Amino acid sequence: MGLGKKLAKHRSSFDSRVCGSVGWQPAEMIGIRAARALLSPIPNETSSSSSSSSPRRFDEKKTKKGTPTGPRLTHHLPPVLKGRLTKAVDVFSAGCIVYYVLTRGEHPFGTEPEREYKIIHNKPDLSGLDDLPLAQELVRAMIAQNPKDRISAQDAVNHPLFWDDSKSLGFLQDVSDRVVKVNSFALCAMMETTGDKVVGLQWDKKLHESLLADLGRYRSYNFTSVCDCLRVIRNKKNHYLELPKVAKAQLGSLPSGFLKYFATRFPRLLIHSYITIGSFYVSRREEDSSAIDFETFETYYKDLSERRLQHFCEMNRRRPCRGWWPRADIWAM
């Protein structure tokens, strides 16, 4: 697939040949490969000369119905996929490999006979990563059909899937801190969008009784709220040493055990917060610099491309509104 070759910054490929494993190439490469196959010369069977050749002819009647080859394949390619190949080709292949490794042998576009058909028609199945939303979001970004929508290699390596436990837990704490500090109903409303899929309708049911008993000693919580769930994580991390021994044993040690406790119960919380804060970060940075603490979140977003940040905004716009508005006491410390 060419993944082991290093290109100079100004180059997109080493040559004009189409190479790579069938079923692991993006739609734009499949289309070029099919078009070149139709135009390439083939030996003239009626000639005794081995050097004589004629243009390749394609008989669509002899093609298996539904097989995406030749004219039928290139016909389904959107115009944007018929341009020049770029480094995004390798990002697509790498995304398929990431999925293959994490699912222990599955392919995001199914079994071999149907892969190229599904690649051309943009029909991936990432259900094998339903329990790993961080990885699922990364793979989806890597195998986007339009190469212009595909995540860059630089943005991919900065994805939260590759953060260590300390950075991941610190991010969740920073998000909760800023929701309180900024006192923004707009930010909190964005955090609550699709909250039922992020923390559920009764997230307290996922916590141990000893932890719930400790929660009720100091503050009240809305057990349907994403922001309140983050507030629990922040408060328990800040007051970890004051927790009862039973609660500390169940939560595990900081940062890894503590993060695992909440990540296994709310696996979508980190990626949801990452996309939401990224979207808010972009939308407010020029409108009102006081709307969010930019210095805090520079640590998490500074190495991302502008295209990736704008993608967060697009993802956030596509989310359905939950119809939830924060209580007046949500800002209580």
From TrEMBL:
Residues 165-303 form the KEN domain. GO terms for cellular component: IRE1-TRAF2-ASK1 complex. GO terms for biological process: IRE1-mediated unfolded protein response; mRNA processing. Residues 1-162 form the Protein kinase domain. Residues 42-77 are annotated as: Disordered. SMART domains: PUG. It comes from the Eukaryota. One of its GO terms (molecular function) is ATP binding. Pfam families: Pkinase, Ribonuc_2-5A. Keywords: ATP-binding, Nucleotide-binding, Signal. InterPro entries: IRE1/2-like, KEN_dom, KEN_sf, Kinase-like_dom_sf, Prot_kinase_dom. This is Uncharacterized protein.
